[in-house]
Amino acid sequence: MTDDAILRMSGITKTFPGVKALQDVNLVVRRGEIHAICGENGAGKSTLMKVLSGVYPHGSYQGDIHFDGELCRFSGIRDSEKHGIVIIHQELALSPYLSIAENIFLGNERVHRGLIDWNKTNADAADLLARVGLDENPVTPAMDLGVGKQQLVEIAKALSKDVKLLILDEPTAALNDADSAHLLDLLRGLRDEGITCVIISHKLNEIKAIADSTTILRDGRTIETLDMEKDLVTEDRIISGMVGRDLEHRYPEHESNVGEEVLRIEDWTVRSPTQHERLVVSGANLTLRRGEIVGLAGLMGAGRTELAMSVFGRSYGVGITGRIYKDGKEIRVKSVRDAIRNGIAYATEDRKRYGLNLIDDIKRNVSTAGLRKLARRGWVNENEEAHVAERYRKSMNIKAPTVAAVTGKLSGGNQQKVVLSKWMFTDPDVLILDEPTRGIDVGAKYEIYSIINEMADQGKAVLVISSELPELLGICDRIYAMSAGRITGEVSREEATPERLMQYMTRYDEEQVVS
Amino acid sequence: MSSVAPARSDQGEAPAPSRGVADRIFSLNLRQNGIYVAFALIVALFAILTHGDLLSPENMSNVLVQNSYILILAIGMILIIIAGHIDLSVGSVVAACGAISAVLMVNHHMAWPLAVVLTLIAGAIIGAWQGYWIAYFEIPAFIVTLAGMLVFRALTLTVLGNQGIGPFPDQVRTLANGFLPGYFGNVGLGALGGADLFTLLVGVIAVVGIVGTQWRARQGRAGYGQKVEALPLFIVKMALAALVVMFIVIQLARFKNLPVVLVVLTVLVLAYTLVTTRAVFGRHIYAIGGNLQAARLSGIKTKSVVFWLFVNMGVLAALAGIIFAGRLNQAGPTAGTNFELDSIAAAFIGGAAVQGGVGKVVGAITGGLIMAVINNGMSLLGAPSERVMLIKGLVLLAAVAFDIWTKRRAGASR
To answer: How far does A40 lie from chain B, in Å, by closest CA?
Structure first.
């Protein structure tokens, strides 16, 4: 290969228990270029960058990393930084109460005889801020800055470490257009200074505008690396690489018997609880019918989970406005109890954190949401409870010796079945399933799809939120796409193609700037 | 994650091949029942060291009466700890409520039943105050009750005017210190001497009750087609329980009679055990402690549950305050000092988990009794108080270390 490569990762394979996150991935980055990495959620982009930056140390993966001509075996993130590789994560990691200058030199303090030299700290910080084009006093606390400016502080911090390769994970995901434009300009400037950048982004228009080459990952493998100028790459070209064409028989056959409308959401708007001015969901309209499986597609940060949780008894967000109609009548759903009472159930995307009591057994997890059905005057009928749980253990095929097994010890697929049992026991009309197959192996996925089909056959409306387009295309009757808090498209099963959905999912209109 | 995950069967529930089934059952039982085994061993140890003095009728009665208020507090504390909170203020609340009851009964000559009810209400209000800040204002319980520790000690001193108030009416002293009257007189038990017949009858009824409810529960489970333990094992367990209960009852009957506070305590233990194991409210406590977010997203009113737990703690602390004051026949400014530490220690020795979600009322009572027996046994042996303190501290540390160790082993075997 050519000598102008600053980074060459070859044959990288990284395995988590039960899942191969990366499989024989190759990445070559030329010196002084901006290299974009694209792929669906879960394609392995972030994992690859964590391998590169030493978050996953040498020995926890297979394959070689050559950086700047030498074979590298990073033991941790400090080690990779010593070599000049700095990663800026999607969630910014500034300490809110420390000043800009303190944040920039955190762990890398300007010291004179064992004491911090504050004059030098602030003077050096001011120089760095000038380099990134941020007009702020270095002693300002980080929490007084907006997200865009915090991003620039992160870059200044990277520059203070003599960075050679700067990795940015979704740097513009939370930025408005003006801040994004400034950031992209800054990256071009850094490129001209000789700093190589790797940028992970979902925004294809940005990639098109800034990247010199693009590597596409799918399902933990390298699909291709495109030279943006030579190959005359279009957004459609990237999309087709991202989605692939491998729709096999991974989904059970199912014919839905769609009935009347059961839930309608109108003009639904939700604000972020941490930044009240930011609309996480704006003006969303959605209809679900009996017996119908509806998909909700979107990339990370599109607002799908936020939409679902805000509908589910306002368990996310502030300043929620909009109307919910159940069977044609407007209902008020102010708490999770209201939602359950109105026949709405929500199975979370993060079952360990939000779905299960991991230290308790299957039967008590199954009964939590519908415990009142098992109780008379406040006293639980435990025998009936065990009976109910046993019924679900059999019908859902939960692989555990008894319903007294602790849920924390079950596999992901079986845990998910417990969560689904819990919600089925509340006898809902509408089930919202958020990433129902995340972290589940292929065999168990098929079972989950069958359970979803059965729910629909019982006349329930099922809304499936998923980051895997093939999954949505495989099981849904109708699919909504979301981007930046808006529903950007709706397609029927017949019209749905991955390309078309990806177009909707990556649509960022000028007027829907978040601010 | 990725959709090309290699096809790998669900094997989370398969037992780790390196460890045998017997080993697993043993470790499971040890973790669940270790506390009772430890209690039996400690009792046996001190019974031997004191040449049987520990188990003498008078000493057993004393141990129960002297520690009743800590055990009452431990009941409230275990519920709070299961929910993942803590209460550092109970010692001060005990003192404040004791003082309030003294002012009502002694200074204002109020009829004692009314004064007791008003004091319990005062405890509820104190609990509601703390519960509000913890549940609805979301200040960590550690901070709120640390403040409460100071605030209610200050309240005590203010109410008492910095001096002890007493004496209490006889009925209140009986509640704390006294015994049930011997309704049917004494019977001879041969070599054991005379014993109170009524007490013995209560013991027999208790044994019949225990065996009866356990049998019914067993039948109920079997009726639903669930697994029940083998009949011989069931009989052995029941016989053991009957033996322990009858031994305690006979010893008490040989001394004076049933202490009144033991009756109160028994009623509380039964009621709270029922609430924690069978009531919807009790289930919600465990759900909140096990995973607060999951509980909230399951429609449980998490804030309200936590609020009422602290109200409950306040009422129990008020009851303990009345009993403690009645026992000393005086409400003093330093009453209840370190009670919070004793009741928290009882809960953790009794198997509560530091992160919440785990614990039993009976466990907390056993934990409290372990401390009581260590205290009593060592003082019978003439050990200086600093050594008692040292041992109690180490026992607490060992109990929690054991809990974490078994958990880690269980985790490693996954």
So the answer is: 10
Provide the 3-class DSSP secondary structure of residue A94: coil
* Token duo for residue A362: 């299957």
Q: How many domains does chain B have?
A: 2
B296 touches chain A (CB under 8 A): yes
pLDDT in tens, A252-285: 888 889 999 999 999 999 998 888 888 999 999 9
Cβ-based burial of B219 (10 A; exposed 0-12, middle 13-18, buried ≥19): exposed
- Give the Cα separation of A101 and A128 in Å (integer): 9
Any B CB within 8 A of A148 CB: no
Please state the ipTM of this predicted complex: 0.83
* A444–chain B Cβ distance below 8 A for any pair: yes
Determine the 3-state secondary structure of A330 from DSSP: strand
Q: Which pTM does this prediction carry?
A: 0.80
CA distance B223 to B226: 7
pLDDT above 70 as % of chain A: 95
Q: Assess if residue B7 is contained within a domain.
A: no
| Fold of the domain built from segment(s) A257-343+428-515 | Rossmann fold (3.40.50)
In a domain, B269, yes or no: yes
* A17 and B CB contact within 8 Å: no
Residues of B in contact with A401 (CB under 8 A): 13
Q: Are strands A261-271 and A279-289 parallel, antiparallel or unpaired?
A: antiparallel
Residues of A in contact with B357 (CB under 8 A): 357, 359-360
Are B323 and B290 in the same domain? yes
Give me the domain span that covers residue B195.
182-258
Q: Which residue of A has its CA nearest to B277?
A: A380
The CATH number that domain A5-243 falls under is 3.40.50.300
Q: Are strands B194-196 and B186-188 parallel, antiparallel or unpaired?
A: antiparallel
CATH 3.40.50.300 in chain A, residues? 5-243, 257-343+428-515
- Per-residue pLDDT tens digits for B253-312: 888 888 999 999 999 999 999 999 999 999 999 999 999 999 999 999 999 999 999 999
Among residues B258, B276, B307, the one where a domain terminates is B258
Residue B254 lies in a domain: yes
Closest-CA distance, A255 to chain B, in angstroms, reads 23
Residue of A nearest to B220 (CA): A383
Residues A20, B6: C-beta atoms closer than 8 Å:
yes
